[in-house]
Amino acid sequence: MRLIILLLFCGLLHIAPIHAESAQVKYVIDGDTVVLSDNRHVRLLAINTPEVASKKRKAELGGEAARQWLKKHIEGQRVRLVADQQKFDKYGRALFYLFDSQGRLINEQLLANGLAVLSIHPPNLKYLPRLQRAQQRAEAQSLGVWKLPAYRSQKLAQLMRSKNKGWQRVTASPVAIKEGRKYVRLMLSANANIRILKQNLHYFPALKNYLQCEIEVRGWVSWHNRQASILIRHPSAVVIKDSNQCAETL
Prior knowledge:
By secondary structure, the protein is an alpha+beta fold. The chain has five helices and 15 strands.
């Protein structure tokens, strides 16, 4: 009898709907940020879209296309809000996945149309596999940002000459590992590295497996004293270019 009750209880837990609130989108700020009717600012989880023009920054290619797509699909509409582990970002914006009235995951749709790129911030991993598949499809079809020259993958030497900042795709082979107080760095050369927060290391395979392996790293490039550093938070930001060179664990 106890077993039957336990099975019924587990079954009820399985079919119970995930609690999620709904709200109306008041207006769209850019491709990954909206304001709700209660004036909450919402940052869409797990993605990043190019910037639109503002007083603080110039427009980036693809930014206005992402904003217009989001306006067309959800501005003035009710959406379902699904949270993950972290509720707010450092700017105080609420973090959510958005579902439209037809049940479509908007974060996923932006990726699928090549209007956004994957930007995983652990521990927010709720829809990671489906989001990765959406980006892979868009990239394979050269949709949106994946067809724009500004977002093409570049060799490390090209990055060092151009001194480009912001989100970049860089192809290189890590040659060494350096550990600091806050970050572990995969050294791409004497003047370039990939930096990973120590608190995120457990999401990655052993970093030694990346050594001498040709990879494409996707992340934000910053410069200090002619040193380029690319910040990544999750292994989804690393694409293996030649699996024959790499350890089987990758």
